[in-house]
């Protein structure tokens, strides 16, 4: 009976689908008034759900899914009720750009892409609970995203209770006390008012004030604007100053945008990292992004102006070393304070800076650039004039967008001061450190600092000087101690079509929330997916995009009267909106009335294991933790953190194929001859190349016109390509389609091979040539159960060696899965099958448990073996075999017998023999008698369990 993976896998995939084998139960939900009997412990394993691109999956994509599937299947064998769902992050810019290019509706292409993804995922045999599939672009999903947005709008952050609360409680405080004693996370420059003043304000004035406190709010914000795409981009959508999608220029621009007050959760986001099992690298990325620092807020008055510059500094002890100030080019004061003489230079600099992204400016530590504004600030204590510059190393969105520059104590300030040395507006560097030479570089070791040339701070160390300067700043009303965070509020508006519509309409320019019972507000049809001619977002093209407050429905724009019919929000939500809570929807995916029931949320709690890419460290993973904490505050989420354990899978790299074009010709020279020519590297389709690096020239000629009439200079009649390990990408033609692997070798081979490549968290190159070894292993496994005539499994007693092999494998595989060390499990399977083959093992007592152990890794062949062994139903929930240590205990020992230190033969003896018994047996052995040739040894050295040595 031959191993036929294609037939076996198709049959079992159909069986799983028809029987909903992997559907999880919400065990807390009552059925007919009684709890489900024999409730199992829960285990929730989740993959970061994919964006369904038109390209489909390549072999790098399933890596994390295979790992999570192994864990999910193993946990089912252990008796857990496993939730292992899948869905699609189906809103986003790529689908919209494709729609712009082709005129196809993004919904159409998204559904086509999803169908392709589903086909590929099913082919690999994942144990997903497809009954809970979610798509963020479906209205029955995003109506709950809209609901969460409304909850954020109707909440404020109370610093006293350290949590989000209903905005009604804030209004109550205003009505009875005003805002003088309100301790909230809110906008800067809040104007104080009394209760009587609040109650006298108009409704519009009250709403404007509340916008300064709400957790989602409208504000003028510096954004990354991409004119070509007509939308705002997140920092992670920009690479080297251009859009990741299309490579278009991006500029910094002020726009009125919806923002999320994630900064309210900065400390909790920081502290929560200590409670979760994530890699230190991801935690450190988030700590750096949150950027907690302790120092002081200092106010510098501006000479000749009523305004002042506020700075945050972690080194207030160095305030007497300030020689200039630097503002971000976007700082609101720049236009006010720039002198006429400097106006042109400043404007030119601002225009140039707008073309660089924040990330680019942060990363570029080598370029020094700036312009003097012509204005001067006043030192709080010496009253000396301090020149005010602008420089793009200061960012408007970080801190206050201003820096007090102390060149003697900061390397970047030092470089800036030296670069502009001698120019108007740049003072000499002051040294305020006792006994320190700053002629070559700045001194930034605060632990050994002794302050000098600083008036009342002279002779103090860092801690003493910091404490004293804060007290003095507070005494003169120009500063105070402060803890600051780098984390900025997240811009939540996108000028796109293909995204969640906001449940918002506008009355007198102020946002109003649509009642939850009228959700979803469904994305309208539009003729064009581009911004309107007057620069409005694509939803400005919609003809029916107004809200009737009487009938509570979306109506024609022609009916807008600003009395009962009002305009709807034209922006849409960003891609991270739907992905910031999706794991909760899986818990109760078909609930029409709420995003998930309290019972389902309480039962599943949060994700036990989350697998996904490290590139989401400061995007998705931060935003989802924020939304989870918010929903916990408001009584909806049961836990503070969404993901208990996180594993970042490494990347599977492509093995690119390179041909060498002789420069200026249509000749291509084989790899080992290229040193004789001046050549250019051209990447070609890796699928044309065999395991010996020989390219199929006929396929290459028929690929693209460039090679049709090309001349190929061969070596030994063959063209050998060069190889390069790099990211798997269509751009490099090094993508390997998993469908091709599954069709030729089977999904079980693909699954085992991807795990065998190396540790899950490391990057590793793909090499199709290596897959044949794994396929050979499965065929060898099959032969333990079958010969040409059928099943050869017996009910005979297994040998001790076979039991030892089996239990060694049980222990190794269980330990490896618990430790997420999947590659070493595959190695153990190979060792196990080799040993059992050598032992000629065909016993049911060995081969039945072996099929179960293998099932998480190669589920299709395991299911078939289980069925052929005479069992009904799926192997997937059969208890995992129990490791029995006694089978690994050695009862005898193969001793080397040495004569004068040289081994002459071996002898197998029980381990419980005494040295005297061992000596007696060895001395009577014929091989000993021959070696001694009638002589008696002078000494017999015996170490039980180790050595036997007879000395002449």
TrEMBL record:
<dbReference type="GO" id="GO:0005524">
    <property type="term" value="F:ATP binding"/>
</dbReference>
<keyword id="KW-0963">Cytoplasm</keyword>
<feature type="binding site">
    <location>
        <position position="730"/>
    </location>
    <ligand>
        <name>ATP</name>
    </ligand>
</feature>
<comment type="similarity">
    <text>Belongs to the class-I aminoacyl-tRNA synthetase family.</text>
</comment>
<protein>
    <recommendedName>
        <fullName>Leucine--tRNA ligase</fullName>
        <ecNumber>6.1.1.4</ecNumber>
    </recommendedName>
</protein>
<feature type="domain" description="Methionyl/Valyl/Leucyl/Isoleucyl-tRNA synthetase anticodon-binding">
    <location>
        <begin position="803"/>
        <end position="914"/>
    </location>
</feature>
<dbReference type="InterPro" id="IPR001412">
    <property type="entry name" value="aa-tRNA-synth_I_CS"/>
</dbReference>
<keyword id="KW-0067">ATP-binding</keyword>
<dbReference type="GO" id="GO:0004823">
    <property type="term" value="F:leucine-tRNA ligase activity"/>
</dbReference>
<dbReference type="InterPro" id="IPR002302">
    <property type="entry name" value="Leu-tRNA-ligase"/>
</dbReference>
<dbReference type="InterPro" id="IPR025709">
    <property type="entry name" value="Leu_tRNA-synth_edit"/>
</dbReference>
<keyword id="KW-0030">Aminoacyl-tRNA synthetase</keyword>
<dbReference type="Pfam" id="PF13603">
    <property type="entry name" value="tRNA-synt_1_2"/>
</dbReference>
<feature type="domain" description="Leucyl-tRNA synthetase editing">
    <location>
        <begin position="287"/>
        <end position="473"/>
    </location>
</feature>
<dbReference type="InterPro" id="IPR013155">
    <property type="entry name" value="M/V/L/I-tRNA-synth_anticd-bd"/>
</dbReference>
<dbReference type="InterPro" id="IPR014729">
    <property type="entry name" value="Rossmann-like_a/b/a_fold"/>
</dbReference>
<dbReference type="Pfam" id="PF08264">
    <property type="entry name" value="Anticodon_1"/>
</dbReference>
<dbReference type="GO" id="GO:0002161">
    <property type="term" value="F:aminoacyl-tRNA deacylase activity"/>
</dbReference>
<feature type="domain" description="Methionyl/Leucyl tRNA synthetase">
    <location>
        <begin position="48"/>
        <end position="154"/>
    </location>
</feature>
<dbReference type="InterPro" id="IPR015413">
    <property type="entry name" value="Methionyl/Leucyl_tRNA_Synth"/>
</dbReference>
<dbReference type="GO" id="GO:0006429">
    <property type="term" value="P:leucyl-tRNA aminoacylation"/>
</dbReference>
<keyword id="KW-0547">Nucleotide-binding</keyword>
<dbReference type="GO" id="GO:0005829">
    <property type="term" value="C:cytosol"/>
</dbReference>
<keyword id="KW-0436">Ligase</keyword>
<dbReference type="Pfam" id="PF09334">
    <property type="entry name" value="tRNA-synt_1g"/>
</dbReference>
<keyword id="KW-0648">Protein biosynthesis</keyword>
<dbReference type="InterPro" id="IPR009080">
    <property type="entry name" value="tRNAsynth_Ia_anticodon-bd"/>
</dbReference>
<dbReference type="InterPro" id="IPR009008">
    <property type="entry name" value="Val/Leu/Ile-tRNA-synth_edit"/>
</dbReference>
């Amino acid at each position: 009976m031959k191993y036929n993976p294609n037939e076996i896998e198709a049959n079992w995939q159909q069986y799983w689908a028809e029987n909903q084998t992997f559907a999880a139960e919400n065990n807390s939900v009552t059925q007919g008034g009684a709890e489900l009997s024999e409730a199992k412990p829960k285990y929730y394993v989740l993959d970061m759900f994919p964006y369904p691109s038109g390209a489909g999956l390549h072999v790098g994509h399933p890596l994390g899914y295979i790992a999570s599937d192994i864990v999910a299947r193993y946990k089912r064998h252990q008796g857990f009720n496993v939730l292992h769902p899948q869905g699609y992050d189906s809103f986003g810019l790529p689908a919209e750009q494709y729609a712009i290019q082709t005129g196809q509706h993004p919904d159409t292409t998204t559904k086509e892409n999803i169908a392709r993804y589903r086909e590929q995922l099913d082919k690999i045999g994942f144990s997903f609970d497809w009954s809970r599939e979610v798509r963020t672009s479906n209205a029955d999903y995003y109506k709950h995203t809209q609901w969460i947005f409304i909850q954020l709008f109707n909440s404020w952050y109370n610093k006293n209770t350290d949590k989000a609360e209903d905005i009604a409680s804030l209004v109550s405080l205003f009505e009875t006390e005003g805002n003088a004693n309100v301790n909230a996370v809110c906008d800067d420059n809040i104007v104080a008012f009394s209760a009587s003043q609040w109650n006298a304000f108009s409704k519009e004035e009250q709403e404007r004030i509340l916008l300064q406190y709400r957790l989602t709010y409208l504000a003028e914000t510096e954004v990354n604007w991409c004119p070509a795409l007509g939308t705002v981009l997140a920092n992670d959508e920009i690479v080297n100053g251009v859009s990741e999608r299309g490579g278009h220029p991006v500029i910094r621009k002020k726009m009125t945008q919806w923002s999320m007050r994630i900064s309210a959760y900065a400390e909790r986001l920081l502290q929560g990292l200590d409670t979760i099992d994530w890699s230190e690298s991801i935690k450190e990325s988030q700590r750096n992004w949150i950027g907690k620092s302790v120092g002081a807020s200092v106010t510098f008055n501006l000479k000749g102006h009523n305004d002042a510059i506020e700075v945050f500094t972690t080194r207030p002890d160095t305030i007497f070393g300030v020689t200039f100030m630097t503002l971000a080019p976007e700082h609101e004061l720049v236009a006010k304070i720039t002198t006429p003489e400097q106006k042109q230079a400043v404007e030119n600099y601002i225009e140039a800076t707008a073309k660089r992204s924040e990330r680019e400016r942060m990363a570029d530590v080598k370029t020094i650039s700036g312009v003097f504004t012509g204005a001067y600030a006043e030192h709080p204590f010496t009253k000396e004039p301090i020149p005010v510059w602008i420089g793009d190393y200061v960012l408007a969105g970080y801190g206050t967008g201003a820096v007090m520059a102390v060149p003697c104590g900061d390397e970047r300030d030092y470089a800036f001061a030296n670069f502009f040395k001698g120019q108007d507006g740049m003072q000499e560097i002051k040294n305020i450190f006792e006994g320190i030479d700053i002629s070559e570089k700045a001194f930034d070791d605060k632990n050994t600092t002794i302050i000098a040339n600083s008036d009342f701070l002279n002779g103090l160390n860092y801690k003493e000087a910091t404490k004293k300067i804060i007290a003095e700043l507070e005494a003169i009303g120009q500063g105070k101690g402060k803890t600051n965070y780098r984390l900025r509020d997240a811009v939540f508006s996108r000028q796109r079509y293909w995204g969640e519509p906001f449940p918002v309409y506008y009355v007198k320019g102020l946002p109003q929330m649509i009642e939850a019972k009228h959700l979803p507000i469904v994305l309208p049809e539009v003729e064009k997916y581009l911004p309107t001619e007057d620069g409005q977002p694509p939803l400005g093209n919609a003809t029916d995009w107004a809200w009737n407050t009487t009938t509570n429905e979306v109506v024609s724009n022609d009916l807008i009267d600003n009395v009962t019919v009002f305009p709807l929000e034209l922006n849409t939500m960003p891609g991270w909106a739907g992905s910031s809570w999706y794991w909760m929807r899986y818990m109760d995916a078909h609930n029409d009335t709420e995003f998930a029931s309290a019972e389902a949320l309480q039962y599943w709690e949060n994700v036990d294991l989350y697998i996904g890419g490290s590139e989401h460290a400061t995007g998705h993973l931060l935003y989802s933790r924020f939304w989870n904490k918010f929903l916990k505050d408001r009584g909806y989420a049961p836990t503070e953190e969404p993901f208990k354990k996180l594993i970042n899978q490494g990347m599977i790299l492509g093995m690119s194929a390179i041909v060498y074009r002789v420069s200026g010709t249509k000749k291509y020279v084989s790899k080992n001859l290229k040193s004789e020519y001046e050549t250019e590297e051209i990447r070609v389709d890796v699928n044309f190349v065999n395991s010996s690096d020989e390219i199929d020239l006929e396929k290459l000629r028929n690929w693209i016109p460039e090679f049709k009439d090309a001349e190929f200079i061969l070596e030994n009649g063959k063209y050998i390509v060069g190889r390069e390990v790099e990211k798997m990408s269509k751009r490099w033609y090094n993508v390997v389609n998993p469908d091709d692997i599954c069709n030729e070798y089977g999904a079980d081979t693909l699954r085992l091979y991807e795990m065998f490549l190396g540790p899950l968290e490391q990057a590793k190159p793909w090499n199709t040539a290596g897959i044949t070894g794994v396929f050979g292993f499965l065929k060898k496994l099959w032969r333990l159960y079958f010969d040409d005539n059928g099943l050869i499994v017996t009910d005979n007693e297994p040998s001790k060696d076979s039991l030892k092999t089996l239990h060694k494998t049980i222990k190794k595989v269980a330990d490896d899965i618990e430790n997420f060390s999947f590659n070493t499990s595959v190695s153990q399977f190979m060792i196990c099958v080799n040993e059992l083959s050598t032992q000629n093992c065909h016993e049911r007592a060995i081969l039945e448990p072996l099929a179960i152990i293998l099932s998480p890794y190669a589920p299709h062949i395991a299911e078939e073996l289980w069925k052929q062994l005479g069992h009904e139903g799926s192997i997937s929930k059969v208890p995992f075999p129990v490791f029995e240590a006694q089978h690994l205990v050695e009862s005898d020992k193969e001793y080397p017998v040495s004569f004068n230190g040289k081994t002459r033969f071996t002898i197998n003896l029980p381990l419980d023999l005494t040295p005297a018994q061992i000596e007696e047996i060895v001395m009577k052995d014929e091989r000993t008698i021959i070696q001694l040739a009638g002589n008696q040894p002078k000494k017999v050295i015996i170490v039980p369990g180790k050595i036997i040595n007879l000395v002449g």
